[in-house]
Design brief:
Layout (H helix, E strand, L loop, with lengths): L3 E5 L21 H14 L3 E4 L9 H8 L7 E8 L4 H14 L4 E7 L9 H19 L4 E4 L4 E4 L14 E4 L3 H10 L2 E4 L4 H17 L5 E10 L3 H11 L5 H8 L8 H11 L6 E3 L2 E2 L12 E4 L1 H14 L3 E5 L3 H11 L16
Parallel strand pairs: 1-2, 1-13, 2-3, 3-4, 4-7, 7-8, 8-9, 9-12, 9-13
Antiparallel strand pairs: 5-6, 10-11, 11-12
Helix pairs in contact: 1-11, 3-4, 4-5, 5-6
Length: 356
């Protein structure tokens, strides 16, 4: 079965030649991030994740709308921080984006604190669940009568629906108990950050059980960095060089800039680094050193083209059929991966069964 292979749009001030060393040429801007997206399309990727962070980078929805007319084939996975927008307004924005993209919109739903607030995890996910349910119903063309804790509204769907007439595929991740329950109830694709194979298998099995209890099925996506070179030794040297100028204080400051720096998932990435060998490898070809200088996804697949392709094929055997990849600098690694690895992978945009 073909897998979906996506790249990363780096909208959140997360692009470096050397981690922790700012480079004005790589700061998130429309021009730089649009070049990454255009390269991903030219290289043959199926989708591009456009991340979202209030204090970092540039606005995701505005960027997606601006870049859409320059694209012919590739999908955009647009990050939406649940609760930051009134759900009916978010539904209209997303439907409009879908039209601008010719029906190629996908949604990365994120449960995040609003800028300036700090909710407990259970409340935050409860709010996100209500927002997602409202947005999904509206994009499916249904009138919403919702009287919950966080939203109380009666509203018709926006006149402009999506081209398909339904809600685009929703990708969602999170390791906490409320996150897993919300994913099982509302997501189409459950996203994971890097982890060891035994943990990956246990999480997939758990999410399948939770979804089945609700009469649903999930597909699974894996978000990971890549460092690919023509030889393994060259790839390992490139990985070491990437963090060669990064000190612990700078790395901690970078990690703490994110609103989700204290999440269960971020904590698990820290545990992964702590369990790695002296060179930062927690298992064959999975290097955790990259997590020293960024929050969130904190490990990379490192190796030559055949080794990287084989590692991704192994993840596919474990249950993943979508991959969201990135590498530093994002434009260069996108081009390199597209040239060296993508031809070795049977890939196509992820197709999901129509919802009832």
């Amino acid at each position: 079965m073909a897998v979906e292979v996506s790249w990363f749009g780096a909208l959140c001030d997360d692009d470096y030649e050397l981690l922790g060393v700012p480079d004005p040429a790589l700061v998130s801007s429309f021009e730089h991030c649009a070049a990454i997206v255009r390269q991903a399309e030219a290289s043959g990727f199926d989708n591009v994740l456009l991340p979202s962070g209030y204090a970092l980078g540039i606005d995701t929805v505005a960027f997606a709308a601006a870049v859409a007319p320059a694209l012919d084939r590739i999908r955009l996975l647009v990050a939406m921080r649940c609760g930051e927008e009134w759900p009916p307004k978010a539904a209209r924005q997303l439907a409009t984006l879908d039209h601008l993209l010719g029906g190629r919109l996908t949604i990365n739903a994120i449960s995040s604190d609003l800028p300036g607030e700090a909710l407990d995890s259970e409340s935050r996910y409860a709010r996100s669940g209500e927002a997602l349910e409202i947005i999904r119903q509206l994009l499916d063309g249904h009138r919403v009568s919702h009287h919950g804790i966080w939203y109380d509204l009666e509203v018709d769907p926006p006149r402009l629906g999506t081209l398909s007439g339904g809600c685009p595929p929703v990708y969602f991740g999170g390791l906490s108990e409320p996150a897993r329950d919300l994913a099982a109830a509302t997501a189409d694709v459950y996203l994971m950050w890097p982890d060891t194979e035994d943990v990956v298998v246990s999480v997939i099995e758990d999410l399948r059980r939770r979804a089945a209890a609700r009469g649903r099925t999930l597909r699974f996506g894996y978000r990971v960095h890549v460092v690919v070179r023509r030889s393994e030794s060259e790839a390992r040297r490139a990985a070491s060089q990437l963090v060669s100028q990064l000190d612990d204080e700078t790395g901690e400051a970078i990690r703490n800039r994110s609103l989700d720096a204290g999440s269960v998932g971020v904590g698990r990435q820290s545990e992964l680094r702590a369990g790695a060998d002296d060179d930062g490898y927690v298992e064959e070809h999975l290097w955790t050193g990259i997590g020293r200088g960024r929050s969130g996804c904190g490990a990379a697949v490192v190796g030559d083209p055949e080794q990287v392709a084989a590692k991704l094929a192994r993840y596919a055997e474990l249950g993943f059929d979508a991959f969201i990849l990135s590498g530093y600098p994002h434009l260069d690694e996108c081009r390199r991966f597209g040239e060296l690895v993508l031809p070795l992978i049977d890939h196509a945009p992820l197709e999901l069964e129509a919802r009832a």
